[in-house]
């Protein structure tokens, strides 16, 4: 048992290290080229490294490739929205498409994380950043390059272990997680119920954020998607509470970093540390992981479009609370509906 725990800890460090390298290297290249403004596209491509955790390599190749394709499609859709200056209803329709496709793909292929949070985050940020027509292809190619680099890193363990002489690390290496295809996921009522919950939640939270005039309304949307559970998962409000409290503490950490106005290399270091810490903790305690996720996300946003730091921090805090509260209401409504359906069934011996 002790040996298994040590093995899993070593695997966590390996996964976190891959994710850190995947995001740090493209950002360092951008700093060298003087194009830090393109950091979000590199960061979103690098998020491909967050998939395939603990999976056998043949399965990992399928899941990571699927996640990479969907992530790039969401970035491309966001760029299309940005370059055309699409109105709000079109952006909202694109968001519904991203959520629906993300949940259907995750449920069919068995992606982990099982929620479309990274797809939604990529789409909304790319849609919000002003994009001249001549910048579309460079930004898309950068995202594709970062995605390809992340894919190679995720699959690199197989090559490295074989070079080191570990012949047990073949395509059928035994790793903790097994995920299979669920070709009929699109027929599952629970999948469509989850899609409906997410769509209602993001439209409500995003609409309220826009009505009261808070900047960065996508934080409220991302918070809803991050809190609502995937199909057939337990509907618990604790994750929403963890997100609100963890984000509040994460904002304090981010303030300590951003308010002094550090140089760019410090911001890249913060992103790298945030990626590593988030990967280590996210499977153990979601609230603690947000101490790293929040500085990571806010630093990426700040690099994309620098704004007044106190305003950025306040927006993140208020909109996370708004998104979390919206998700809690949906969770309570879903739980009440499940209780009514259970009460309506006839008792059996």
UniProtKB/TrEMBL annotation:
Signal peptide feature range: none
Segments crossing the lipid bilayer: 21-44, 64-83, 90-111, 140-160, 199-228, 289-305, 317-338
Domain (Integral membrane bound transporter) ranges: 205-330
The organism's place on the tree of life at top rank: Bacteria
Keywords assigned by UniProt, alphabetized: Membrane, Transmembrane, Transmembrane helix
Pfam families associated with the record: FUSC_2
Membrane disposition: Multi-pass membrane protein
A single Gene Ontology CC term: membrane
Places the protein is found: Membrane
InterPro entries: Memb_transporter_dom (IPR049453)
Protein name: FUSC family protein
Species of provenance: Cryobacterium tagatosivorans
Lineage: Bacteria, Bacillati, Actinomycetota, Actinomycetes, Micrococcales
């Amino acid at each position: 048992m002790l040996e298994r725990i040590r093995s899993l800890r070593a695997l966590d460090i390996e996964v976190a290290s891959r994710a850190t390298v995947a995001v740090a290297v493209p950002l360092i290249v951008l700093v060298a080229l003087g194009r830090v403004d393109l950091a979000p596209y590199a960061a979103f491509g690098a998020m491909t490294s967050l998939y395939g955790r603990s999976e056998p390599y043949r399965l990992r190749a399928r899941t990571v490739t699927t996640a990479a394709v969907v992530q790039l499609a969401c970035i491309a859709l966001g760029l299309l929205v940005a370059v055309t200056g699409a109105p709000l209803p079109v952006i909202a329709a694109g968001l519904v498409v991203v959520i629906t496709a993300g949940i259907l793909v995750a449920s069919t292929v068995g992606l982990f994380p099982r929620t479309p949070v990274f797809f939604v985050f990529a789409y909304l940020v790319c849609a919000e950043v002003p994009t001249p027509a001549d910048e579309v292809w460079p930004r898309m190619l950068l995202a594709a390059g970062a995605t390809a680099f992340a894919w190679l890193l995720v699959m690199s363990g197989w090559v490295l272990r074989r070079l080191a002489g570990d012949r047990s690390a073949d395509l059928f290496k035994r790793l903790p997680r097994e995920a299979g295809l669920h070709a009929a996921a699109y027929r599952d009522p629970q999948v469509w119920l989850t899609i409906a919950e997410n769509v209602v939640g993001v439209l409500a939270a995003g609409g309220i954020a826009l009505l009261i005039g808070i900047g960065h309304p996508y934080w409220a949307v991302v918070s809803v998607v991050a809190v609502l559970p995937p199909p057939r998962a337990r509907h618990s409000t604790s994750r929403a509470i963890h997100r609100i409290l963890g984000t509040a503490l994460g904002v304090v950490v981010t303030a300590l970093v951003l308010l002094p106005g550090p140089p760019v290399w410090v911001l890249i270091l913060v992103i790298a540390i945030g990626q590593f810490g988030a990967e280590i903790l996210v499977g153990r305690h979601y609230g603690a992981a947000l101490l790293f996720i929040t500085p990571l996300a806010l630093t990426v946003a700040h690099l994309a479009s620098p704004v007044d730091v106190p305003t950025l921090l306040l927006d993140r805090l208020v909109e996370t609370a708004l998104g979390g509260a919206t998700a809690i209401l949906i969770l309570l409504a879903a739980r009440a509906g499940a209780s009514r359906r259970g009460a309506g069934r006839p008792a059996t011996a």
